[in-house]
Amino acid sequence: MTDDEATPETALDWVVDPTTPAEKGQLPLSVVIITENEEEQIEACIESVFAACRGVSAFEVILVDSASTDRTVERAREYPVTILRIPEEHTVSCGAGRFVGDQVARGELVLHVDGDMTLTDEWLPRAIDYLRNNADTVGVEGCLDESTQTGVMEVDKIGGVTLYDAEALAAISGFDPWLQGYEDVDVGFQLTTAGNRLVRLPEVSATHDVDSEIPEPLRRWRQGYYVAPGQTIRKWLGEPAVLRLLLRRQRFKLALVAWFAAGALSLVFTQLLLGWVVLSAIGFVMIATKRGPMGAVDFLATKTLAIGGVAEGLTRSPRPASAYPLSAIEVVATGRVLQGSPLDTEKQTASTDGSTESTAQQD
């Protein structure tokens, strides 16, 4: 990057305090990056954020790390970004990371990015322009990795790389830090049932690095994603509008539960057993026609595993976001307000500049 491609950085004296929600609208844009053991991708992620924000007059980058055991935080500290760390003993999830980042974010708009994603240059300017020119829209996403979409599509939730109106997000208390996953669905359904609009733009927003060494169902189980739908359903049992959307999203799992129940019933009324077996075989063949035999087995196994997760999630009582232990969040480094795209030299000076030193070193 040359000097002609960047504008100087603007320093700003401020104290990062996760326990006190920051006033929104102080900057045009805040970027919240969430990480957990992303040392291989985090530099590309941060640099892609800087590149995508080249046309933004002023922005800040807040990285929230979920108890990484690798060098994610060490590598991120080479950049002029705010770094917060959630200790391992507290709830570690995507929702918790987004919630913590939004607490200190001061932007009029807030961009959420996962640390294993690399932003494209074209999507963010388009997303910012769309939000500012469509007052009824409060959230925008793009397509991940590739796109066959030709126009703007209205959706009921957004995920992956997302741009929100910060005030609209704060009005529903933002992301739920206690959910093990599904935080984007939870927020999306709240916003849309309140009359707000969410859209997906046809542009590719980012490329996403997927860990192929761990099977997807196992990865989702280990990270609690299968538990999250049950948690969310229980949370909204008293709100029919949101609950209806959640149940509709789980319709395939509910159908499978009903089918298993019919199978159990056929064991009692044996004259029904043959019909259940035959229909089960027909159903498997139909799935296998689209996915192949092993794909059908994987599909059914995944849905069965997810049913167990939903059942477990339903046993978990919802907790208010205000109960999340924000006082335990460690402020590792305090970043600065940036203008345009930071100079390459800022990567080297970030670790020596007082505004990005850890709080321990400042003491």
UniProtKB/TrEMBL annotation:
Keywords: Membrane, Transmembrane, Transmembrane helix
UniProt xrefs under InterPro entries: Glyco_trans_2-like (IPR001173), Glycosyltransf_2 (IPR050834), Nucleotide-diphossugar_trans (IPR029044)
Coiled coil: none
Glycosyltransferase 2-like domain ranges (all copies): 30-138
Ranges for region Disordered: 340-363
PANTHER family (UniProt xref): GLYCOSYLTRANSFERASE, GLYCOSYLTRANSFERASE 2-LIKE DOMAIN-CONTAINING PROTEIN
Protein name (record): Glycosyltransferase family 2 protein
Lineage of origin: Archaea, Methanobacteriati, Methanobacteriota, Stenosarchaea group, Halobacteria
